[in-house]
Amino acid sequence: MKAAGQTPLFILDEQDDARDSRREVMEFLDGDSIAGFFKREMLAGADYGPRSYPLPFAYPDRRVPQDVEGSRNTPIFWAGHRQFGLRRLYLEHLESARGLKLDAVYDQTEYVRVLLDTRIGLNIFGCGFDTVRYWELPAHGCMLLSERLPIRIPHNFRDGESAVFFDDTQDLEEKIEYYLAHPEEVRAIARAGHEHFKRHHTGSMRARQLLAWMHVPVR
Fold this sequence. Notes:
Blueprint (H helix, E strand, L loop, with lengths): L9 E4 L8 H8 L6 E4 L12 E3 L19 E4 L9 H12 L9 H9 L1 E6 L9 H7 L3 E5 L16 E3 L2 H12 L2 H18 L2 H12 L5
Parallel strand pairs: 1-2, 2-3, 4-5, 5-6, 6-7
């Protein structure tokens, strides 16, 4: 901090929680002012103080497929741990109600292949509200079907246009039943979600957003 002199200080909080940690970080750094505070898990409607900006995850440009328009034969996809949030509740309900098997384990190559074969990709909160899946699914051309995030997402997907959001088990079940019966809508939302993702949520686009916030004049 002493060596930095008058260089503007920005703090980036990428933790899996929504609490405001700015004060304790400043105490640890023994500093008295910052130029900006970037937070991944920024609750919508909460006040994190002046010059605080949401900065959720993105997805690396190099991992975004060039072609996502192929045929897709996997109706619904999930892979991952179940011990966080309401994941176990949702997944066990879907497996029981719809006869799905959502516990497969893949290596990286097979995982990407399945993503490119999936019509509807499921996203459920993990340790935090923001997950890699939220960005990974539309990056691979799946229709994002996600638990509704209560955090601030700049340029977020629009419900029913570029993604579909659900609020509880009944809502999830009803939306799965509807969209499985309307494959053309699934394709249209998936295509819109993929284009929206490329415009706003690649790693390079998130970096541009961060740099733009850094150039906001301090008053």
